[in-house]
Amino acid sequence: MLSLVGLLLPPATATHESTHRYYVYGAITDTAGAPVGGLLVEVEVPGATTYSEQHLWTGVTDTSGRYSILVHLHHLGAGTDDAGLTIHVRVPAVGASATYTATASGVPADQNQGPEVIGWGYTRADFSVTPPPPPPPFDFGAYRDPLLAVGGGVGVLVLLSVVWRRGEGRRQGARVSAQRQSVGELPGVGRATAQKLAAAGYGSIPQLARAEASELVEKLHLSETQAKRLIAKASQFGKRSG
């Protein structure tokens, strides 16, 4: 069934025949004859009978400076014929422009000869121009001072953070060191004496170094000479450790 339908249907045709195609093409060079690529080219045809009411078409030159713009103009006979209309070609970036008349013609030798792409008319528009100047380099100077200010501020914050961390590390180390300085580390102080000192509130060397001899005599039942000797040992040990 499908094959029968296919036989009955007429063959598909292209949406736009050559009578709907007109080409504006050319090359753009600088005053020394070198090609200028990347330039926008505009083609405007006021009064064109396009169904979409489009009157402006654009293209861009390639690296060889060439461009080709397909313009939807009609060449269908009386009432729908754009032959004779004025064609405006512009290169806005360099202020170049030229005016031509849409004219039926054969296919130029340097254009595509394929039947599916040929048009009913061709207009060649070449330009010799002074290329637009390159964009100015990025001005870092305008942003240098704010960036330096921000960078300097960040640098100060980082420095303060490092100093604080180092100081905090020293303080923690000092606290840990003090906690670890048990009276049992003093030369001549055995475990039993250390336990008694800790029970009486003198478990660390700094605590013992700050004690009064009379307190040790009263709490530990030591002689005054023994008490002073213990306090002296703790003071000397603390100085060496610091």
Explain this structure.
The protein has 242 residues and is an alpha/beta fold. 36% of the residues lie in helices and 18% in strands. A hairpin with a 4-residue loop joins strand 5 and strand 6 (96-101). The termini are far apart. Mean pLDDT is 81; it is low at 1-15. The protein folds into two domains: 15-129, Immunoglobulin-like, CATH 2.60.40; 176-242, DNA polymerase, domain 1 (Orthogonal Bundle), CATH 1.10.150. It is built from six helices and eight strands, in the order H-E-E-E-E-E-E-E-E-H-H-H-H-H. Strands 1, 4, 7 and 8 form a four-stranded mixed sheet that branches.
In brief:
By secondary structure, the protein is of the alpha/beta class. It is built from six helices and eight strands, in the order H-E-E-E-E-E-E-E-E-H-H-H-H-H.
The portion of residues forming beta strands comes to 15-25%
Q: Write down the CATH class of the largest domain.
A: Mainly Beta
Number of domains: 2
Give me the strand/helix succession. HEEEEEEEEHHHHH
Helix content: 25-40%
Mean pLDDT: 81
